[in-house]
Amino acid sequence: MIAIWVPARLSVFSRTQVSQITSWKRPSELLPSFCIFSSSLLPSHITQGMATDCSVIASFAVCLEHHVRFRSKLGISALYPQDDQGIPCLNPSGRYSVRLLFNGVNRQIDIDDRLPVRNDNRLACASDRTGVHLWPSLVEKAYMKLNGGYDFPAMHPKRLNTDLREDAGRRILTVLNPWSDGISLVSGSSSEADSQRLVTDNGILVVDWDDICDNFDSIYLNWNPAMFTHKHVFHGTWPTTSKTVGTSLNPALNHTFRLILEDLPNSVSPAENSVWCLLTRHVIDKDDSDTFIALHSFSTGANHPFESDIRSVNRAYSNSPLVLTRISPDKDAKQISLVISKQGSLDVETRYSLFVYSLGSVRLDDIPERLLHSVTIHDSLSTRTSGGNSSYPTFMNNPQYHLQIKPTAGSNTGVPVRCTVQGSKDVPLNIMVVWSGGARVTDITHGDIALESGPYNYGLAYASGVLTAGHYTLVVSTFEPQMQSTFSLTVECPHKFDLEALPLEGAGMFLKTIKGTWRGRSAAGPSSQGGYAANPTYKLTVPSQTQLQFRLQMVNPLSRPSINVSIFEDPSPVTGGDVINPPLAHSSGYTDAVSGAITSRQTFGKGRYVVIVSTSRPNVEGAFVLFVYSSAVPVSIHLKE
């Protein structure tokens, strides 16, 4: 319980407000007649005082409108004492209590009925235009007490919708301006009848729905938790933590839960099967805008639709104290992993509450912070290593790691594995664990994936499931290439395992990068078409014996013709369009792989060679890039004239 607020001084106001406020007075000293609440109080009667609490006033009006329509007592029943009908009533002592849901639980805020008065002897707080009802003034006082005073930070919305109707096929929205000196306004496209009717409706604005869409960024909707039959609540804390090498990435700031779907309604409607998860950050400092939170959801142990995951990105972090995630589980889903994360304000302990609402039976389990064995690697996504999702040829450049799950004596069953990557809150991330023998991978198909985090998710990706003993490749990727971030990768398992970074393709080798195009005559196609010599041809000079490897890629990932790169001895092996000698090295036939065509790593002696790049069909135009890796010495390569 919070003590009675005795405003003996005016420090609860800003400097500007103090200059216009003379005193605090009881209603009997200010109003000829008054009551707490009656059915005559309407949303349009509520006016905003000197506090910049437009969002609070908007909430009052919405509560009143809801009560007028449905007799719900929404917001009205928060003020005590009450009569036998549950309506707030006068207390001769001038003392009242207000019930407010704050930081995850209901709080009782005790106040008296003294209200701030301006120089012109008018109320400086929220009030009733008719000067009769005290409900808005008293509830606002309790809320301002909870927030430390009337010096309240301005928040959206500055106006609110009170009615949406259709007039002759035209959708019209009625908007309330709660300022005490509000004026009547009608948008330019509104009817003359509307304009005449609203001349005396103080603070009312009638706007076409199209005008609303043109001039407002968003609409905020409230929802009633009582529409759900099941509810779970968890209260927790993000502890203070030290920074790690210039980042705010710390596994202690990620709390993981398992949502067990026990008995959801057997309905084809996603809305009826959905589970709503609400994360609330407890507010200690109302001016805190540096703490960002997120509520991530991942299907646990599920096979995600690979192609759709490439196109989807989940929500970002928010510095709002409330984050709502609506989850529509797949029909066969049994459980979902929830990860709640915090970034920023590392030196401040932050408490939170997690609410889970559903129409069917679910269970919320707190997953232990760590499995027996855990390895964390700190790494970065740079311009070189941020390759984007698997639809890009640069996917192969993403950070990759050899994951070896050690066999357990006397057991061939799989073991649980959890993988978490956390990076910048502005970068969407993904984790894939791939069957590959532990080698670096270049192209991914759905059948290659042993474990995956699902859709790309801002700031954090999480994958959990069961893996058998063996060698795997773990890939951390961004949604688009060139998205840069430091990140921490944590892998956990109850059994021993090894995790080590895999070198990039061509690591430790000299690199030459050649850009070119197939266009017009140079789009000659394969040797069987008779014009092979017209394809882009490069002269390669090797100064001494070295190992070489060649990779050919399309620049545009949407253009995927089958391509080939072949290396011949010089002089030119082509006469009249026919190949005289077989190539010394080549990519295996023609391929349309996203990563392009690559040769094996082979030894070349000192000398001159010819490199020809081609497509499987003539007249296929497009830009390409050719990478030439050399182990011992740099080589010279240029386009043959």
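Second entry:
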Amino acid sequence: MMRCQNQVVLTSYIIGDNPENIVNIYQQFELTKSNWKKSDLIMKNDTSKIERRLSNTTLDLTQTLRHRSGSFYSYLSEEKTVKNRVKRCLMKTCSVKTLKRRVPIFSYMSKYTWAMAFSDFLAGITVGLTIIPQAIAYSSVADLPAQIGLYSSILGPLVYAIFGSSKDSPIGPTAIEGLLVRENKHELGVDGAILLCFLSGCVELAMGILHLGFLIDFISGPVAVAFTSAAAIIVATTQVKDLIGLEHPGDNFILVWKQIYEHINELSGPDCAMGFICIVCLVMLKKLKDIKFLNNSEEEKTLFQKILYGLFWLLSTSRNLLVVIISASVAYALEYKGKSPFRLTGFVKPGLPDISLPPFSTKVENKTYSFVEMATILGSGIIIVPILSILQNYAIAKVYSEGKSIDSTQEMLALGVCNIASSFVSSMPVSGALSRGAVNHASGVKTTFGGVYTSLVVILSLSFLTPWFYYIPKAALAAVIIVAVALMIELHVFGPIWKTKKVDLIPAAATFFGCLFTRLEIGIGIGIAINLAFLLYATARPSIHIETAKSNSGHDYLLVTPDRSLLFPSVEYVRNVITKASIQPGSTPIPVVIDAKHIQAADYTAAKGMKLLIKDFANRNQPIIFMNLKKSVVTTFKGVNPKSFIYCESYDELNENLQTFSIKKISLDIDLKNEQNLTRL
């Protein structure tokens, strides 16, 4: 009855643009119901007649309303016109709500206060002072000139201030992206890195437009941790040669350590001393903010204590900049006749970058590469770099979300626009960095506008400070990178994984060693493939609970309950399990009831498999009944096998079907006995 009532309501909603028509329908329908309740039909519990009368009444009311409203068909045709659909879509897209969601700066600028502006200013300046040495250092990781890292820190923070939704995510070069650029640019050099930045932005933007954020969910926690840890170890390894003053480069983890072993006698004493002293200073400064002189609460601290703690926090936060400035000053002071005891960063191109299109062709050693050739050389990096950039940025947004939901689509759109815009100023791929995110959060940033001040700091450094960058020792930059990436090595996570689910160590270990001994994209690809194999196996081998049950009328039946959706990988397995369970040698076959309460979806292959199963059961005169099916699954099964498919919506229907089968079985047994008696005569 409820189903027909809903049908009338739905019909009235679709047909009647006149409220009076809808009121008339309700009045007539309620009157009809009240008359039926007084009749003998309810007393006899004849639900089939009630359903027929409801259906007939629904049809009559619908036809009546059609006559009353001559605009019925014109109304439907008008709603289905392309013009109206486009109009509704444009109205939804161009609404103020959509504008604020896709351009988040509009959502907070109307309530932006001077206090928020001051907090953003302090946080932006602090992150800017952090990003300068990091940008120069990550250029070294990517095997690019130092100015490229600084160029990468200009437009990214500015654009993200407009389109970004996470206030704690400062955009710029990162160690992982630097390593990916190093592995994928090959002989293309700077132009390859810039084009990779542009193409990465295009991929990120496309993923955001198509709402493909769910793809990131296929990178499990163990795989992500293993990848990050392996990448951090590789980054640190590439910096060891600069830390100890060796000239011999290496392209991968094994080759770098081989070169170090073969040329260990060529290491530079001054560089070693500078590098290890910088590491010690960085670690000590990092711990400085955690020093507690007194156990006083925040309210009980004196003004002097608050100033002292603030000073410690400032020194700890700006430790990278302090170490770089002091080491550069030492290198400048020890320079004698144009020679330094340290290997220095060297010339950094002064001034701001030119604004130009990304290089869609390039010339390297008298050989010209077209766009297609450049894209071919970049290879899988065009896909891997944006995916990992999104993963990094999303991780930062999630860590500092403070319980708020993260719009992954908006983050992809923002990151895509950041990379596309940055490629016009000769940038390498950019993303958020967890270390800078921690500094930004600790600095009390209030909105994404802090990125504007970060960008201004970088612009000023390029305009006035590049001559001093010449004297920064490579050993000091190597120390900055090694200490920064050391925090990314999370090998301690493998202990809890072992205690919770040991099988998760397989993709984690495969990812970790694959990244170390091959390439980063190969390693993470192996980990994702193993995870997908586990998921497919779980889909192909569902757990099936089988038990013998008894209906209210006393009839036995076999109750089969699969624990998940019925899709093509699991069809044959489910079919075989049900067939084996239903055939019991030496006993009379009983009906099989499949409880589909956990089956949320089914496909064509599953429907074909169930059709064959029903056919097999029919051949041995054993019924198979479905119950608790979702409407979508019923439609799928009926599309392949509309006649033989039996399903019940309630236990009362199930009891009726089981009783009907019992009567047919008794009749069949009687016929068989009569046939045997006639044969004997």
